[in-house]
Design goal:
Layout (H helix, E strand, L loop, with lengths): L3 H27 L11 E2 L11 H10 L11 H11 L7 E4 L3 H11 L6 E5 L3 H9 L4 E5 L8 H10 L3 E6 L11 H9 L5 E6 L15 H5 L4 E6 L12 E4 L2 H7 L9 H12 L1 H25 L11 E5 L4 H7 L5 E2 L10 E5 L3 H16 L1
The structure holds pyridoxal-5'-phosphate.
The site of pyridoxal-5'-phosphate has 14 residues, from loops.
């Protein structure tokens, strides 16, 4: 029999497990057995940016390390202000966390319930889907269109049918690297059903070169029911430093702020503050360099008549012409680790854009397996 006391003890343990579970699940999924693998393995499996941590950020981290034995609590107002200002927002419009994973987790927790569903496309970035699943929330997955883009009409229709919900959309989408164009985004925001919030995950937005793709941040500034997630893990090359944020109307941020787990590390905070001061050079330079390497890979695939999904982020999906799971398993022993399989896209392999040298090795290994 479950007594009131044991119920609360169990509920507490379950809540703690929920907090940890999704992150652990992703780590497991990302893990590739390392024993017996080549020492010079090229890792192209997690959409990291080989440009790495900007030099200014490294200098800022070195400077703060000797005083990092203190909490630096008093400094976090300035950290919030600097990050908010870099996106033309105010501090009461942002919530910073450990990567964008933490604030995404919080939004899913606060804006879904057993009756208010989490609505997204399949496949989408699975982090928030795993959170919704672990919390026992209702989940609705809509199919991508033929061209692997999100069908915004279907997303709105599902929210309408459920009398509201949280629509989660990555732009560009992970794992497909496809984009939601400005006209679709505008339509979705203008047609959000009652009791519906749109959560736009813009982890990879800086890599997009297409002029008809735009950020949803202007909608946040206008006070719409739109939340935008951003991360410093991708274009800024700071995945291991764990900094990201969500931006939303002050009333939304005020509601979710108590769910934050903690402040971030002062070392990471200083790194980000230094980087955003130079965003006018860091972002366009990195975007251009990445796009050049991405174009080269696309050209190489086209020359060989290998099909792929037109990419807009720092990764792309290639049609292996057979089951991708077996294809992917053959690559690590040859020195290259691509992304894991992404059902239901059974024939597609996801590869992160690395350095030119890494991509040369990728092409070599990919072609060996493809031709075998
Ligand atoms: C679309 C998307 N959103 C969010 C994240 C979470 O990353 P982080 O917690 O490092 O910001 C990822 C990670 O790959 C991602 O692909």
């Amino acid at each position: 029999m479950v007594t009131r006391r044991s119920f609360f003890a169990q509920a507490g343990a379950a809540a703690a497990a929920v907090r940890l579970m999704p992150e652990m699940a992703w780590a497991q999924r990302a893990a590739i057995k390392t024993s017996g693998l080549p020492k010079d393995m090229v890792w192209l499996n997690a959409n990291e940016n080989p440009a790495g941590i900007p030099e200014v950020s490294q200098a800022a981290m070195r400077e703060v390390i000797p005083t990092a034995y203190r909490y630096h609590y008093q400094e976090f107002g300035d950290v919030d202000a600097a990050i908010a200002k870099s996106e033309e927002l105010t501090p009461d419009q942002i919530l910073i966390g450990a990567g964008s994973s933490e604030p995404l987790h919080i939004i899913v927790d606060a804006y879904t319930s057993e009756t208010r569903p989490f609505i997204t496309v399949t496949p989408a970035y699975e982090g928030p889907v795993e959170v919704a699943k672990a919390l026992g929330r209702k989940i609705i997955l809509t199919k991508l269109r033929e061209d692997y883009t999100a069908d915004v009409h279907k997303l709105a229709e599902e929210a309408d049918k459920s009398r509201g919900g949280l629509i989660y959309l990555c732009n560009p989408n992970n794992p497909t690297s496809t984009v939601t164009r400005a006209k679709d985004l505008d339509w979705l925001v203008a047609n959000l059903p009652p009791n519906t919030t749109l959560l736009m995950d813009e982890a990879y937005i800086h890599f997009v070169e297409e002029p008809d793709v735009k950020s949803a941040l202007p909608y946040v500034r206008q006070g719409k029911d739109v939340i935008v997630a951003r991360t410093y893990s991708k274009i800024y090359g700071m995945a291991g430093l764990r900094v990201g944020f969500v931006a939303a109307r002050p009333d939304i941020i005020e509601r979710v702020r108590p769910l934050r787990m903690n402040i971030i590390s002062i070392v990471s905070a200083r790194a980000v503050v230094a980087a955003v001061k130079q965003q006018q050079t860091i972002v366009p330079e990195r975007r251009a360099s990445l796009a050049r390497t991405r174009r080269e890979l696309c050209g190489w695939l086209r020359d060989r008549s290998v099909k792929f999904v037109e990419p807009h982020a720092n990764f792309l999906m290639i049609d292996c012409g057979r089951n991708a799971r077996e294809f992917i398993a053959k690559m690590p022993p040859l020195g290259v680790a691509p992304g894991r399989p992404f059902p239901p896209l059974d024939n597609l392999l996801r590869v992160t854009i690395g350095t030119d040298q890494e991509m040369a090795k990728f092409r070599d290994v990919f072609w060996k397996v493809y031709k075998a």
